[in-house]
TrEMBL record:
One of its GO terms (cellular component) is peroxisome. This is Carboxymuconolactone decarboxylase-like domain-containing protein. The lineage of its organism: Eukaryota, Fungi, Dikarya, Ascomycota, Saccharomycotina. GO terms for molecular function: peroxiredoxin activity. It comes from Naumovozyma castellii. Residues 205-272 form the Carboxymuconolactone decarboxylase-like domain. Signal peptide: none annotated. The gene is NCAS0H00440.
Length: 291
């Protein structure tokens, strides 16, 4: 399988910009997933886990090489899983949170770039996640569920947080998130989607913005906005990217962070062999008019 990341490139991503200190790995993970290079996600995940320990940044070079050794030296899945479980037999709260953020990042990239890519990214992540940090999931029998004799979607972190919200409230939450992003042009964008095909707006609101993008149980609204940008950059979809670059500003991200995310995603895309038909749009700061 094609290998893109090495120790030097892991360091390059980690040190890319000080504004991305706590999100560079999520931006890179979303970008690699969209570029259809899910095999790189385990390296990002384990380097981020290693760096989460106190004062670990002092050993960032050594940890980058150890991450590559962990992923590649132990070629057999069983041997690698055993070693990972030994290293992370007692993970910290930060490492648990980081794991949840990785999963939510890849899930949220799904409707933006395709469910198959999200599935492949999450499957690659699962293979290298310490057993203690894997979600506890019951077996599902789709035949029994189809007959109404079994719950088709057992409770998840997302559902447990939303357990007191009915469908209408989740949709309202999605609309509030939508309005925060699109602000003054919200009505125009909604009606463009609705006039193109009413089901397009329905799907966007009810299945993407409501239960997914507006959910803040793992990623904050600002982190989600930056992950969306990282998911759009590789796809050559300037109209949507332009809207979400402005939307990130509207939702509270600062200009420097947004531009750093855009550039990091471009770098990952270039490493992955992505070529764009047009240039990649970017934000421009409006100059203040002189009085």
């Amino acid at each position: 399988m094609n290998s893109i990341l090495n120790a030097q490139r892991l360091l390059q991503l980690y040190q890319f910009h000080p504004k991305l200190k706590d999100i560079w790995y999520l931006v890179a993970a979303a970008s690699f997933s969209v570029c259809n290079e899910p095999q790189e996600i385990p390296k990002l995940y384990h380097y981020a886990l290693a760096l989460s320990n106190q004062n670990a940044q002092k050993y960032r070079v050594t940890l980058a090489h150890k991450t590559m050794d962990l992923i590649y030296t132990n070629n057999e899945q069983e041997q690698r899983s055993k070693l990972i479980n030994e290293i992370y037999s007692n993970p910290t709260a930060l490492q648990k949170t980081l794991t949840e953020k990785f999963r939510d990042t890849l899930l949220k990239s799904g409707p933006l770039a395709g469910l198959p890519k999200a599935i492949n990214g999450l499957s690659n992540l699962k293979e290298v996640t310490p057993t203690v940090l894997l979600p506890r999931t019951p077996m599902i029998d789709p035949w029994e569920a189809a007959m109404g004799r079994e719950e088709p979607c057992p409770a998840t972190m997302r559902e447990s947080i939303n357990s007191y919200e009915d469908r209408s409230l989740i949709i309202q939450r999605g609309l509030r998130h939508w309005n925060s992003i699109y602000n003054k042009v919200s009505t125009r964008v909604v009606n463009n989607l609705n006039s193109s095909y009413p089901d397009l707006w329905y799907y966007t609101l009810v299945h993407v913005y409501g239960p997914l993008l507006s959910f803040t149980g793992a990623l904050t609204a600002q982190e989600t906005s930056l992950v969306v940008i990282a998911s759009l950059v590789p796809q050559d979809v300037n109209p949507q990217l332009r809207g979400h670059l402005k939307g990130a500003l509207n939702i509270g991200c600062d200009f420097e962070t947004i531009e750093a995310v855009r550039r990091l995603s471009i770098l990952v895309s270039q490493w992955s062999g992505v070529q764009w038909k047009d240039g990649i749009v970017q934000l421009t700061l409006k100059k203040k008019q002189s009085v």
